[in-house]
C-alpha cells in the first residue's frame, strides 16, 4: 500500500498517523481540518489534505457571526481534538475582531452534559451561540429548545461537523430555519454529483466529494511524476503537481500528457484547492456558507475562496 485517501475525521487521522508514517504510507484526507495536522513533527511529510485547516474555518465562522450582528457570543464545543481546536480558532478570531466570548463550554456526548452546558450558556445571556460538534449536536439543540433558548430565540451558528440534513431529522418543523454554518470546500457540481450517484445511487450528502476526487487524482499524478509507487516518492511530488504558477491542467489524462512532455504542472480540480505545501496544507482553498431553510434542510448561500492563513 502506497497511499490512503482519508480519514474523514481529524481525530481518526491523528490516531493512525504514527502507524501510517512508520509504514511510509501517504495519508491524504479530503475532510480533516484540525490545525494539529499542519505540524510536520506529527505528519513527517507524509500527510496532505485538500481542505484548509481550522485556521481558515475559524476565521470565516467568526466573521460570519459578526457579520450577522453578534458581539457577545457563547461557544459550545464537544470535547474532541477537532472541535476544541476549531473552538480555539473561532475564539481567537472573534476576539481579535473586537467581539467578546461570554462563556466557553466544552461538553461530553451525554444528555447530562448537554443540560449542564446549555444552562451555562443561558446564564451567560449571549447574543448568539456558536456550537461546534458532530451529530450529537442534535441533543444539544433539543436541550436549547427545552431551556427556552432554541435557534428561533438565540441565533445559532454551526460548523462542518454538523451542517447536514441529517442533523435536523426528527426536530420540529422550522426549528432550524435561518441557522447558518460553514463547510470547508466547494459545493459539488451537477456533473460531479451525477458521477457520484452513478457509483452510489443512495447518496444524499455530497460534502467533500470534490475534495475526495482531487485527493485521489493528486496521489495518482504524484506517482506519475515520481515514476514510483513508494509513499515517500509520491509525497515528494504532491506539492510539485499542485504548485501554483506552472502549466495548468484539470483532467488526469491532460496532466499526464504534460508531465510526459517534461512540463511542470499545476493541477486544479473541482475542489479548487491549489498550492499544497510541504506540510500538507493547501495554500488556497474555499469555504462554503450553508443555511437551513423552513423545511429544515440546508442549501449553500455563499462561498469564500482565499489564501489559507497559517496561524
UniProtKB/TrEMBL annotation:
Q: What phylogenetic lineage does the species belong to?
A: unclassified sequences, metagenomes, ecological metagenomes
Q: Where in the cell is it found?
A: Membrane
One Pfam annotation reads ANF_receptor
Q: Which Gene3D superfamilies match?
A: 3.40.50.2300
Q: Where is the Receptor ligand binding region domain?
A: 2-293
Choose one Gene Ontology CC annotation of this protein and give it. membrane
User: Which UniProt keywords are given for this protein, alphabetically ordered?
Assistant: Membrane, Transmembrane, Transmembrane helix
Q: Does the keyword Lyase apply?
A: no
InterPro entries of this UniProt entry? Answer: ANF_lig-bd_rcpt (IPR001828), BCAA_transport (IPR051010), Peripla_BP_I (IPR028082)
Specify the protein name. Answer: Unannotated protein
Q: Which organism is it from?
A: freshwater metagenome
Amino acid at each position: 500500500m502506497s497511499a490512503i485517501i482519508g480519514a474523514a475525521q481529524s481525530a481518526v487521522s491523528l490516531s493512525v498517523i504514527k502507524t501510517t508514517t512508520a509504514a511510509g504510507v501517504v495519508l491524504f484526507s479530503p475532510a480533516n481540518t484540525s490545525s494539529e495536522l499542519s505540524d510536520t513533527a506529527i505528519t513527517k511529510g507524509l500527510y496532505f489534505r485538500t481542505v484548509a485547516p481550522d485556521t481558515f474555518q475559524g476565521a470565516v465562522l467568526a466573521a460570519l457571526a459578526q457579520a450577522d450582528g453578534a458581539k457577545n457570543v457563547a461557544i459550545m464545543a464537544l470535547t474532541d481534538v477537532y472541535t476544541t481546536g476549531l473552538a480555539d480558532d473561532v475564539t481567537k478570531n472573534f476576539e481579535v475582531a473586537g467581539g467578546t466570548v461570554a462563556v466557553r463550554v466544552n461538553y461530553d456526548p451525554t444528555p447530562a452534559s448537554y443540560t449542564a452546558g446549555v444552562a451555562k450558556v443561558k446564564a451567560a445571556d449571549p447574543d448568539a451561540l456558536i456550537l461546534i460538534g458532530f451529530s450529537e449536536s442534535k441533543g444539544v439543540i433539543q436541550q436549547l429548545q427545552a431551556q427556552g433558548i432554541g435557534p428561533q430565540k438565540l441565533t445559532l451558528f454551526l460548523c462542518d461537523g454538523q451542517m447536514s440534513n441529517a442533523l435536523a431529522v426528527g426536530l420540529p418543523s422550522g426549528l432550524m430555519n435561518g441557522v447558518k454554518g460553514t463547510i470547508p470546500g466547494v459545493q459539488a457540481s451537477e456533473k460531479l454529483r451525477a458521477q457520484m450517484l452513478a457509483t452510489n445511487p443512495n447518496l444524499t450528502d455530497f460534502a467533500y466529494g470534490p475534495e475526495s476526487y482531487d485527493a485521489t487524482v493528486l496521489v495518482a499524478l504524484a506517482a506519475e511524476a515520481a515514476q514510483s509507487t513508494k509513499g515517500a516518492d509520491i509525497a515528494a511530488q504532491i506539492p510539485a503537481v499542485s504548485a501554483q504558477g506552472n502549466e495548468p491542467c484539470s483532467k488526469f489524462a491532460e496532466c499526464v500528457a504534460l508531465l510526459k512532455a517534461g512540463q511542470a504542472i499545476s493541477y486544479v480540480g473541482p475542489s479548487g484547492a491549489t498550492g499544497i505545501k510541504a506540510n500538507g496544507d493547501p495554500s488556497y482553498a474555499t469555504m462554503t456558507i450553508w443555511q437551513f431553510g423552513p423545511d429544515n434542510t440546508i442549501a449553500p448561500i455563499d462561498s469564500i475562496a482565499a489564501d489559507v492563513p497559517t496561524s
